[in-house]
Design brief:
The protein has 604 residues and is α/β, with parallel strands linked by helices. The strands form 4 sheets. A 7-stranded parallel β-sheet has the order 3-4-2-5-6-1-7, sandwiched between helices. Bound molecules: adenosine monophosphate (AMP). Adenosine monophosphate binds next to helix 3.
Length: 604
């Protein structure tokens, strides 16, 4: 099917021909004729990169009456970047329709400018929910003539805490309108919106970008949790031309990783919710121009980044939701380029890897974290290539006699060695005797069994419950109203080290167990040696093997008969702190999500 067969008018056809669009994408083939012909609502399961902006934008532009100035369509989206992108796209599609005006309204920018644009009449308004509400309250944005409402990236808007805002805005729009909802995923909250605000909607779904796509390879590396950063360094070192995004789970982790990378001399920077809009634009500008190679970002901050040439997407930590992994990896391998999506994983994530594989319908390939020799060889070649390609300045000519005199005692081979070493010694010494970071585990079921991860696994060594983690006992439990996030907070506070990896947390009745990376055993024991919680003196010990655990309990907890008969994990509240947002509680992660959502999001 061609665009003209789809029923678009000549002005629009001319504009999209100028853009070089030849055939409609699958979502466009379904959505455009539907919106042109029907007035009922539409749910489209589609993510960025599928051509969804044109899928809703083109038919809306065609159906709008551009001789009336009233706002006839409101398009809501989660971020400023996406808002500007959609506005720019719609302006391009309508460039031969001189009377049609599209206005972007988003937080963090001068509201007066936006009000002036609205006052001059704008048939299509694209906005982030917070700013839209602000303008509605100031009576500068009137929605009574709205005929089309688009909720773009609805799942993301709800993730960012815009639920109430969406309710408020939708309540402002007339009942007689067509609502088009675009979402990459369909969580409960999105379903609620569709139930409450949409009438007999048609649902269309297009294949996810990555499902079965051949242009993204999915690699994973298995390391101990504490070696995550070093593995990232090696991955960057072995790919000197990397141009990619490193995804972290939290704002704090994003800052930490990017700061470390910068300190270690990598061409990296970060975007996260704490940056001002100018700072963010500055970083994004450098990344777009490729003067910045590595962008460290949270999922929310990376929204709206539409760059086709990324070589790698690196999952420094996996997201809770596998669909987010699909989103992340879909940022590479675009526009006919090959891309690699990398997961830096540890042994606890085997099941998660298996579920991602199932969802992708693709194999995740286990890769070895490169050793020092391999990295040095690649970096050396890179250096030599750079030397070969360097333009020789004519200015050097006049200095040559003295240079030659000074180097006259060296033959060619020595000369090469000296020049290369001058550039390269730091690198060589860094990787001299570099340890092997790989752990032997793989995601396969056999290897899970091989490693004996049965119910008694990990209890054969004192306190060492899994690779790299030590299990600690603490005399705080449910009776003290202790929750996992309290324990995480205590570990942060008493070790004064926010980079520690925390493993499983088991909250029991009168006491609990928690795991911390083994390298920090001493820090934990010393840190907690004189510790308290709400005035209650804390005791923390390395958890002993089962046979003497009874003794330890007697000694270290307030004696409690119920405890003595307690049988291991059966009644425990077993959570994996990493799968609940690393070292943060759900609440603090939610805050982090909001803070990048413009001014309104921040307040919540
Ligand atoms: P979107 O999913 O709306 O973010 O679009 C992804 C990219 O695909 C954008 O750069 C669009 O300009 C481009 N695009 C959208 N529709 C088409 C099409 N029919 N043919 C070629 N490129 C398209």
């Amino acid at each position: 099917m061609t665009f003209s067969e789809i029923g678009l008018n000549n002005n629009i056809l001319k504009a999209i021909t100028d853009l070089g669009f030849e055939t409609p994408t699958p979502i466009q083939q379904e959505a455009i004729p539907f919106v042109l012909a029907e007035e009922t609502d539409l749910i489209a399961l589609a993510q960025t990169g599928t051509g969804k902006t044109a899928a809703f934008g083109l038919p809306i532009i065609q159906k709008i009456n551009d001789s009336r100035n009233q706002t006839q369509s409101i398009i809501l989206c989660p971020t400023r970047e996406l808002c500007l992108q959609i506005t720019k796209d719609l302006e391009t599609y309508s460039k031969y329709m001189k009377k049609l005006k599209v206005t972007a309204v988003y937080g963090g920018a001068n509201i007066q400018t936006q009000i002036r644009a609205l006052n001059s009449g704008s048939q299509i308004v694209v906005g982030t929910p917070g700013r839209v509400i602000d303008l509605i309250n100031r009576k500068k944005l009137k929605l009574k003539d709205v005929e089309f409402v688009v909720l773009d990236e609805a799942d993301e808007m709800l993730n960012m805490g815009f639920k109430d805002d969406l309710d408020t805005i939708l309540a402002e729009t007339p009942e007689e309108k067509q609502t088009l909802l675009f979402s990459a995923t369909m969580p409960k909250e999105v379903m609620r919106i569709t139930k409450n605000y949409m009438f007999s909607p048609k649902t269309i779904e297009v294949a996810r970008r990555n499902e079965g796509a051949t242009d993204v390879e999915h690699h994973y590396y298995m390391v101990n949790a504490r070696d995550r950063y070093n593995a990232l360094r090696r991955i960057c070192d072995v790919n000197p031309d990397i141009y990619g995004i490193v995804f972290c789970r939290t704002r704090r982790e994003t800052k930490e990783v990017s700061e470390k990378l910068m300190q270690d001399g990598y061409n990296a920077d970060a975007i996260h919710g704490e940056l001002s809009q100018q700072q963010r634009d500055h970083v994004m500008g450098r990344f777009r121009k490729k003067t910045l190679q590595i962008l460290v970002a949270t999922d929310v901050a990376a929204r709206g980044i539409d760059i086709n040439e990324l070589t790698h997407v690196i999952n420094y930590n996996l997201p809770d939701d596998n669909e987010i992994y699909i989103h992340r990896s879909g940022r590479t391998g675009r526009a006919g380029n090959k891309g690699i999506s990398i997961i830096i994983s540890h042994s606890r994530e085997k099941r998660k890897l298996q579920s991602i594989e199932k969802m992708l319908k693709r194999e995740l390939i286990l890769k070895k974290v490169p050793g020092g020799d391999e990295i040095c060889a690649i970096q050396l070649i890179k250096l030599i290539d750079k030397i070969v390609k360097t333009d020789v300045s004519p200015q050097i000519e006049k200095h040559l006699p003295i240079i030659e005199e000074k180097l006259s005692h060296l033959d060619k081979e020595d000369l090469v060695k000296h020049f290369v070493s001058a550039e390269f010694n730091r690198f060589l010494s860094f990787y001299k005797n570099a340890p092997d970071l790989n752990i032997t585990a793989s995601k396969g079921r056999d290897s899970v069994r091989e490693r004996g991860r049965g119910k008694d696994s990990g209890k054969n060594r004192r306190g060492h419950s899994d690779e790299g983690f030590t299990r600690f006992f603490i005399n705080l439990g449910k009776t003290h109203k202790c929750e996992p996030q309290n324990l995480i907070g205590l570990v942060n506070e008493y070790t004064r080290n926010r980079n520690l990896q925390i493993g499983k947390i088991d909250i029991l009745q009168g006491f609990s167990f928690f795991e911390v990376e083994s390298s920090a055993e001493k820090d934990v024991l010393e840190g907690f040696s004189d510790s308290q919680w709400n005035g209650y003196k804390l005791t923390v010990e390395i958890s002993k093997p089962k046979k003497d655990s009874g003794k330890r309990r007697e000694k270290s907890t307030r004696s409690d008969k119920r405890r003595t008969g307690f049988s291991g994990n059966k009644r425990s509240e077993r959570i994996d702190s990493k799968s609940s947002g690393g070292r943060k509680s759900f609440k603090s992660r939610f805050k982090e999500n909001n803070s990048s959502a413009g001014s309104r999001g921040k307040k919540r």
